Amino acid sequence: MTDVTLYHWEPNANSGKPMLALFEKGVAFDSHYLDLLNFDQHRPDYLAVNPLGTIPAMTHGDKVLTESTAIMEYVNEAFDGPRLMPADPVDQWRARWWMKFLDQWLAPSFSMIGWSVFVGPSVRQKDPAELEAAIDRIPMPERRTAWRKAINGAFSPEEMTESQRRVGLGIGYLEAALVQREWLASGEYGLADINGFNLAYAMPLSQPQLCNDELTPNIMRWLRAIYARPATRACWALGRTDLARRISLLESEPA
Amino acid sequence: MTGILYHGQPNGPSFTVLAAAFEKGVDLERRPIDLVAGDRHSAALPHPIEVDQSIEGEGPVLVVGDVAMTDSVFLACYLDDIGTGPAIRPADPYARWQMMAWCRYVIERVAPAAAALGNAAAPPHTVPAGIASADLAARWTDAVEGEADATQLADSRTKIVQAVEKIEAQLADGRDWLMGDFSIADLESFAWLAGMRALVPQAFVASPRVDAWEARLRARPAVAQALGLATVPNPEAIWAPGPEINRWG
Fold first, then answer.
1. B-chain residues within 8 Å CB-CB of A161?
2. How far apart are CA B9 and CA B88, in angstroms?
3. What are the sequence ranges of the domains in chain B?
4. Does the CB of A94 have a partner CB in chain B at under 8 Å?
5. How many domains does one find in chain A?
6. FRET pair for B175, CA 20 to 30 Å: which of A53, A185, A195, A243?
């Protein structure tokens, strides 16, 4: 019996952040899988939980929480288990700086590429009238615009070029940080790593020319170390699509 | 001495950090810089990635030992940890989540809108040399050349109207402060909205609770002390390029 329910999609990007934090913390939770590609997140039963229709959301007793990074900080503070934020206030600042940088600068670039190559094509074959109705149900105007762009393949070449530029730079920044420290924000594994892993675990596959054992040995070391953790294995076992199965590429040995 | 704070006029992120430091009684060595002239990009400041790639754009920089820290809400969290004054974050984890989620909304939706409107109203004169981030440099160029997109400005005004409505609703139960007790959420919300009264007056035509909240805020000694550091009559009218408007819309 648990009083925690997590509404999530694949262990990937925003959904995967609170999932992995809960596994690392050892918190039992009811997993409520929402199929993003089937627009489950905009159906009335979920909108009753999170009226904005964004994924993930978590309930703890009668409390409802949204915003994946803020949920992770809550998970860390509200439950017993290993500490997932560093003890030192400067290191805590660095963990938050990196999570914001990933959430607002690097992740949107990755997701623009991901939506154009995966999400868009995955839903495009649905009946157009049904798709249009599904988009009309999306509560946030920003998300309606994004879905229309993804489905119509309407990201401009300039937008895609800018996203690829940021991905290239971002991989360099991650490598530079992981040259300096064992983990992303400090000497301890924590929320910044959980956040980063959800963004980066498939980079060696999606950006092989930029992220590999030769060019970014520290990113590869970091990804393999996180993949080796039991919590990560348990979390990714909740994946249902090829998206989550990409994680198996981290089973490879360093070249 | 616990750190060196490079800061601009007490508006936007510089305001949040100055007021948080005074609230917490943290004795910082203050080094005022002209953000609009591009001082933040000079060799006088350290330039690690956290300074050059800060999402916040032209915000303050706090140097503690050999670490240079940016992003005002997280600097305020740091000051809350090390200072001796009353807490500026709730202790309860759920209340703390509410505060961080609120600040995230301000950071992601309100701040880019306010910065876009502020820069359009008072554009900087030249693009400073030495900007490491190409996307921040592009925001500078747009600001200097008055290239603001009319659709984005209209959307930004809508975001300010919505933010004032959200605060008005949050205060509807008669509370004094956004999270109940005074917190970083009050500072960060005021930081970006103070200059919007002149630029988006329609947002404030029916906002009696917001007006009273702002008056309470200005009456706090730490806030008055921060605002008192201004070297111009209207610090809320001074803007340099801030966070970018979400590329997804």
1. none
2. 22
3. 4-82, 93-220
4. yes
5. 1
6. A53
Distance CA A103, CA A92 (A): 16
C-alpha angle B102/B104/B105, rounded to 5°? 65
The domain of A211 spans 89-228
Summarised one tens digit per residue, pLDDT across range A98-137 is 999 999 999 999 988 888 887 788 888 888 888 888 889 9
Looking at domain B93-220, does it have CATH number 3.40.50.300? Answer: no
Q: Is A105 on the interface with B (CB under 8 A)?
A: yes
Architecture of the B4-82 domain: 3-Layer(aba) Sandwich (3.40)
What is the C-alpha to C-alpha distance for residues A177 and A182, in angstroms, rounded to an integer? Answer: 9
End-to-end CA distance of chain A: 45
Which residues of chain A are within 8 Å of residue B94 when distances are taken between CB atoms? 60, 63, 65, 74, 78
CATH number at A121 reads 1.20.1050.10
Share of chain B above pLDDT 70, in %: 99
Judged by a CB distance cut-off of 8 A, whether residue A176 touches chain B is yes
Residue A31, H or E segment: strand A30-33
What is the pTM assigned to this prediction? 0.96
CB contact under 8 A, B249 and A145: yes
